[in-house]
Amino acid sequence: MKMFLVKNYEELSRKAAGILAAQVISKPNSILGLATGSTPLGTYANLVEWCKNGDVDFSNVTTFNLDEYAGLSEENDQSYRYFMNTNLFDQINIDKAKTHVPNGKAADLTAEGLQYDQMIREHGGIDIQLLGIGHSGHIGFNEPDDVFVGSTHPVTLVEQTIQANARFFGSIDKVPTMAITMGMTSIMQAKKVLLIANGQDKKEIVEKAFYGPITPKVPASILQLHPDCTVICSW
Ligand code: PGA
Predict the structure, then answer these.
(1) Predicted local confidence at residue 40, as pLDDT
(2) Whose CA is closest to atom 8 on ligand 1?
(3) Which residues pair with 5 in a beta bridge?
(4) Cα 187 from Cα 199, distance rounded (Å)
(5) What is the mean pLDDT of residues 18-41?
(6) Pocket around ligand 1 at a 6 A CB cut-off
(7) pLDDT above 70 covers what percent of the chain?
(8) pLDDT digits (tens, 9 = 90+) for 202-229
(9) How far is the centre of ligand 1, averaged over its atoms, from the C-alpha of 182 (Å)?
(10) Rounded to whole angstroms, how far apart are CA atoms 132 and 37?
(11) Where are the alpha helices (DSSP H) in the chain?
(12) Ligand 1 centroid to 77 CA: how many Å?
């Protein structure tokens, strides 16, 4: 594992974007695993700028996002599909048909998850997976549990996650309590993993995840076993 502590959010965002851009430049048909949340916003802003300048070409890139809230349609401005369209896909030269987000409106989220994993496998797996980390230690929406779940699967969000995400919904009652998330198999099989964590409030969980015991009670701790994991932090 490579762990970088950089001086501020701007530097974190530039460094993370640099790693993703290098991936796309060296392999134009890369399969990127992408994340939502407030942390990747600066990373995506850099990629948008570099794409507009003609320095990075996304026309052959395919993406798979980590997760989606259950029950939210693509048009809902709180859905992760909407987030990705607004903050990245609509601003770069990517073919929208090559961008994938789990369908939170699927009638059977378990079946949707299995199909999502199948699609990732058919593309040969993910080249680089971008991750944030939640205060609960979650990656994607893999919340603390008794076991690490492999497949893309439906989850019940923990209170801490619902509270953390209430800021985006205006009120806690509006936060969905269920989601669908990529599981540990696709994340751990990604050739590279890049986790970004910003802010003093993430320090404790990052230390637990990367220097504590490997346990499904701290889902991100499984990344200690990944052969090519880079962590970029600023606090
Ligand atoms: P954040 O979320 O980037 O908004 O802090 C991270 C996460 O929950 O994975």
Answers:
(1) 98
(2) 134
(3) 233
(4) 24
(5) 98
(6) 37-39, 132-134
(7) 100
(8) 999 999 999 999 999 999 999 999 999 9
(9) 15
(10) 7
(11) 9-26, 41-52, 80-87, 109-122, 159-169, 184-189, 203-211
(12) 17
Total residues belonging to the chain:
235
pTM beyond 0.85, yes or no = yes
Q: Which two tokens stand for residue 137?
A: 């230690």
Give the Å distance between the CA of 132 and the centre of ligand 1: 5
| Mean pLDDT, range 27-49, rounded to an integer | 98
CA distance 11 to 13: 5
Q: 3-class SS at 103?
A: coil
pLDDT 10s digits, 146-190: 999 999 999 999 898 899 889 889 889 999 999 999 999 999 999
Whether 30 and 66 have beta carbons less than 8 Å apart is answered as no
Q: Rounded to the nearest whole angstrom, what is the distance from the C-alpha of residue 130 to the centroid of ligand 1?
A: 12
Question: Which of 34, 38, 163, 204 is the best mutation target for the ligand 1 pocket, counting ligand atoms within 8 Å of the beta carbon and taking the most?
Answer: 38
Q: Which of 9, 39, 158 to mutate to test the pocket of ligand 1 (most atoms within 8 A of CB)?
A: 39
Question: How many angstroms is it from 30 CA to the middle of ligand 1?
Answer: 24
